[in-house]
Amino acid sequence: MSAGIISPIVAVRLWGIDWTCSFDGNGRLRQVRVAREWLDAREALRDTLVQALERAYAEMPS
User: Fold this and answer.
1) Cβ burial, residue 16 (10 Å; 0-12/13-18/19+)
2) Structure confidence at residue 31 (pLDDT)
3) H or E stretch including 23?
4) Tens-of-pLDDT digits for all 62 residues of the chain?
5) Torsion of CA 55, 61, 36, 54, to 10 degrees
6) Rounded to 5°, angle at Cα 15 from 50 and 34
7) Residue 22 burial by CB count (10 A; 0-12/13-18/19+): exposed, middle or buried?
C-alpha cells in the first residue's frame, strides 16, 4: 500500500462492483486499487466515475 493513502480504506459498491478506495477526511476519493496497485483516482478514472464513487461512499451507513 502506498504511503500516500489517507484512509479510510473502504470497499464501495457501485454498479455491482466492489471498488477498494481510499478517501480523505472530506470524503474525497484519493486512490483506487486496481490490479493490486494503488493508483491516483483522478489519473486512473474519469471524473464521472470518481464522482459516482464519492456519492456512493457518502450514502453508505456509518
Assistant:
1) exposed
2) 92
3) strand 17-23
4) 455 556 678 898 988 888 999 998 888 999 999 888 888 988 888 888 988 999 899 998 87
5) 10
6) 55
7) buried
Write out the three cell numbers for 30.
Answer: 484519493
Give yes or no for a contact between 54 and 28, defined as CB atoms under 8 angstroms apart.
yes
Could you tell me whether strands 29-34 and 17-23 are parallel, antiparallel, or unpaired per DSSP bridges? antiparallel
Q: pTM here?
A: 0.66
CB 38 within 8 A of CB 51: no
